[in-house]
Amino acid sequence: MIPLVKLLREDHTSDSLYEKGKKTFNYWIAILLAAIALTIILTVSTLIIGSIGISEPFKEKGIWTQTFDELAKNIKNADATSLYNNFIMSFISTILLTTTTLVLSVYLVYSVVRDWKKANEDRTYIDVNKQNFTLLTAIGFISFIQIILFSSSFSIQTGYSQLGVAFIVLSILSAVIGLLTKLFPGTQFRRIKFLFENIKRKEESAKILKSLSQAFNGNNTNGGNNWLNELLAGQVPSDLRASDIDQNDSENSFDKSASKSNNETTKSTKETVEELQKRQTIEKLISLPNDQLFKMAKLLNIVEYQSLPKEELAELIYNYTKQNNETYEKTEIAEKSDQNQ
Fold it and tell me: Where in the chain are the domains?
């Protein structure tokens, strides 16, 4: 079985990830379902025992009356009415929280099994419903509250009848199992979906950059210079090197690099060749028509691009393409590797 962390570090397509991680995915989902099933069994048992106490709450031999009497004996100078009210409130809270956990757990089993089946049919976990993680979080939160309630009142919970002890023990166990389910197999289940979402993001980034490259290079007056590809590679685009960068700017850039070594502090001495490249590239972007910039911004998912000043939009486009370069290159390598295999 391959750890999920290792799968995350490797480059995969969706199909190759499914094939390589199938056993790992099935293992963690099976553990998750087993943990939820155990929670259901414990909560049902808790409610059954609780219902026995409700059926005869004020009879002499009723488990809750007996428990209450024992509690009163163990607390000196206790106000009987206040103690009984606290006891009843604790009991009702436990029943309500346990019932809620049971309902959520049953629906969660249905939802996970449905998504698991669909994932194996589609060979991807990208469509796993996010409500599963919401349900797991809710169960974990309720379980945490139950544990806090039990721990805060544990000092007075002595002298219980056998059924009373069983009720408390089962309630605590169901709460602990519910919390552990959220923290361990629940977390791994979320990571499985994240693995496939990560691949989808990489593929979408690659498509965006390819579309952006085609759109930009198609509008390039020099056509064959592959302007955006050079930009993504961290190079000064060919047409900038050939015509757009003024000779004086080039000389100034070298002068500035040299002057930096001489500890000059003026603004011009701090401008590096890379900064000059960025400035010239942004200037070229600014020179493009607005509709061309808007098309590029849309491909890069830049929000509210139409309301941005042209200079700011040009700089955002430059920064976005640079940030996506690494993703683009990794996806290209993965695609070539799959083709060779």
Answer: 4-199, 219-340
